[in-house]
From TrEMBL:
<dbReference type="InterPro" id="IPR026555">
    <property type="entry name" value="NSL3/Tex30"/>
</dbReference>
<dbReference type="InterPro" id="IPR029058">
    <property type="entry name" value="AB_hydrolase_fold"/>
</dbReference>
<protein>
    <submittedName>
        <fullName>TEX30 protein</fullName>
    </submittedName>
</protein>
<dbReference type="InterPro" id="IPR046879">
    <property type="entry name" value="KANL3/Tex30_Abhydrolase"/>
</dbReference>
<dbReference type="Pfam" id="PF20408">
    <property type="entry name" value="Abhydrolase_11"/>
</dbReference>
<feature type="domain" description="KANL3/Tex30 alpha/beta hydrolase-like">
    <location>
        <begin position="27"/>
        <end position="211"/>
    </location>
</feature>
Length: 221
C-alpha cells in the first residue's frame, strides 16, 4: 500500500507491507545515504516480515544530513502511531547504514523527553556505519550508548565502516539488551564473495525476524 506521509510542507514516499492477519507489531524501515526505500535488501526484508505477520512501513528520505533524516523518521513514527488503519501495540525502528543512525537518534530523543510511552520496542541496525572508512578514531557511538531499548546489529565482518572489534567494544559498553549478528566476510553493502545476494538477504531476514519474535515474546511474559 503506497502512502504519502506529511513532513513539514512536503511529503515522504512510503510503502506499507501488510500481513494477511491483523498485525500487532510493526517495523519502520529506511535506507542508507544512497538509494531509497526500494533498495533490494529493504524490499526483501519488508516482504519477509509481512509474510511472518509483522507490518512493515518503509520510507524514502533523500537528505544526507542525519538531523534531517531523524526529523523525517519522527514524522513517519508519528504518522504510524496515529494511523486509524493499523492499531499497533508497538513498533521497532530499523534502518540500513545512515538510516540506522537516524533511528538511533529518534530513540534517544524520545527517551530523553516526556514522549517515551513504551511504543518503541527496539532498534534494528543493518550495516551500522560506526566510522568512516579508514577513520576508526572517530566513532559514531554517542547515541548507541544512550539507547535503553533492545538493539540488534546485523553487520558484515568485513564492513569497511564498522570494524568488528570496534563495534564489539561499543556494544560491551551499551546498557541496553543487545545482540550482534555477523554476516561472515560481508562488506558494508552486505556483499559476500561466493554467495548470492538472495542467500545473504535470507540470512539477514531470518536473523531480524527471530530477534523481533524473541523480543515481542519477552514483553508478554
Amino acid at each position: 500500500v503506497k502512502v504519502k506521509i506529511p513532513f513539514g510542507n512536503k511529503y515522504l514516499d512510503a510503502i506499507f507491507s501488510v500481513p494477511e492477519k491483523k498485525p500487532t507489531y510493526g517495523v519502520i524501515l529506511t535506507h542508507g545515504a544512497g538509494g531509497d526505500m526500494n533498495f533490494p535488501h529493504l524490499v526483501s526484508l519488508a516482504a519477509y516480515l509481512a509474510s511472518h505477520g509483522v507490518l512493515c512501513l518503509r520510507f524514502t528520505c533523500k537528505g544526507l544530513n542525519v538531523a534531517y533524516r531523524t526529523k523525517a523518521f519522527r514524522a513517519v513514527l508519528e504518522y504510524l502511531k496515529l494511523s486509524d488503519d493499523y492499531k499497533l501495540s508497538g513498533v521497532f525502528l530499523a534502518g540500513r547504514s545512515m538510516g540506522s543512525r537516524a533511528a538511533a537518534c529518534v530513540i534517544c530523543q524520545l527517551s530523553q523527553g516526556d514522549d517515551d510511552d513504551g511504543f518503541i520496542q527496539g532498534l534494528v541496525c543493518l550495516s551500522y556505519p560506526l566510522h568512516r572508512p579508514k577513520l576508526q578514531s572517530r566513532l559514531r557511538d554517542e547515541h548507541l550508548l544512550l539507547v535503553s531499548c533492545p538493539v540488534l546489529f546485523v553487520s558484515g565482518s568485513a564492513d569497511e565502516m564498522c570494524e568488528k572489534q570496534l563495534l564489539e567494544g561499543v556494544v560491551s559498553k551499551m546498557k541496553a539488551p543487545k545482540k550482534i549478528h555477523w554476516i561472515d566476510k560481508a562488506n558494508h553493502g552486505m556483499a559476500v564473495k561466493g554467495r548470492t545476494a538472495d542467500d545473504v538477504m535470507e540470512e539477514v531476514n531470518e536473523q531480524v525476524f527471530s530477534w523481533l519474535r524473541e523480543n515481542i515474546q519477552l514483553q508478554h511474559k
